[in-house]
């Protein structure tokens, strides 16, 4: 494993740092963004292997950013795992409907985070 790059989009600096440290300790390269706009800039500059995307962001929601990713040629198939503090049937349905590769509840367990990222990357590699 590892060597893959993960773009983490999270507007809370402490959570972003925790995600960064957790993923880096598992061998991933991490690019951080604190807003959807910053994430779009990062996506234009570099092609990560996966996006870990918070649902609740300022200015533009994670759902809206996911829609933009799915509508952008060249990155439309990029695996995107949504992060949310409000997991339920409606959120799960929305994630599937909008083409998310996975859904992870906050607060997250380290093992579940790394497994979810690994599984999303593996599914991308097999497709």
Total domain count = 1
Query: Which H/E pattern describes the elements?
Result: EHEHEHEHEH
Looking at CATH, the homologous superfamily is: Response regulator
Per CATH, which architecture?
3-Layer(aba) Sandwich
Mean pLDDT across every amino acid position: 92
> DSSP helix count?
5
> How much of the sequence is in beta strands?
15-25%
CATH class: Alpha Beta
Intertermini distance: 17 Å
Report the structural category.
alpha/beta
Largest sheet: 5 strands, parallel
Helical residues, percent: 40-55%
The name CATH uses for the topology is Rossmann fold
Low-confidence stretches: none
Number of strands: 5
> What best-fitting shape do the alpha-carbon axes yield?
globular
| Rg, Å, rounded | 13 Å
**Spatial strand arrangement across the major sheet:** 2-1-3-4-5
Please specify the SSE layout and strand pairing.
Layout: E1 5-9, H1 13-25, E2 29-33, H2 36-45, E3 50-54, H3 62-70, E4 80-84, H4 89-97, E5 102-105, H5 110-126
Parallel strand pairs: 1-2, 1-3, 3-4, 4-5
Summarize the structure.
The chain is α/β, with parallel strands linked by helices.
Please describe what this structure looks like.
The protein is α/β, with parallel strands linked by helices and 127 residues long. It has a single domain (5-122), classed as Rossmann fold. The protein is 46% helix and 19% strand. It has five helices and five strands, in the order βαβαβαβαβα. The chain has helices spanning 13-25, 36-45, 62-70, 89-97, 110-126; strands at residues 5-9, 29-33, 50-54, 80-84, 102-105. Strands 2-1-3-4-5 form a five-stranded parallel β-sheet, with helices on both faces. It is globular. It starts with a strand and ends with a helix.
């Amino acid at each position: 494993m590892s060597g893959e790059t993960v773009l983490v989009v999270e507007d809370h600096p402490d959570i972003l740092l925790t995600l960064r440290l957790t993923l880096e300790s598992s061998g991933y390269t991490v690019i951080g963004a604190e807003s959807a706009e910053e994430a779009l800039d990062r996506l234009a500059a570099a092609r990560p292997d996966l996006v870990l995307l918070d649902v609740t962001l300022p200015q533009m929601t994670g759902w809206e950013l996911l829609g933009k990713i799915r509508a952008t040629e060249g990155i439309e198939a990029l695996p995107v795992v949504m992060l949310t503090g409000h997991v339920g049937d409606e959120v799960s349905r929305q994630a599937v409907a909008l083409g998310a590769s996975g859904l992870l509840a906050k607060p997250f367990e380290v093992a579940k985070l790394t497994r979810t990222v690994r599984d999303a990357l593996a599914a991308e590699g097999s497709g």
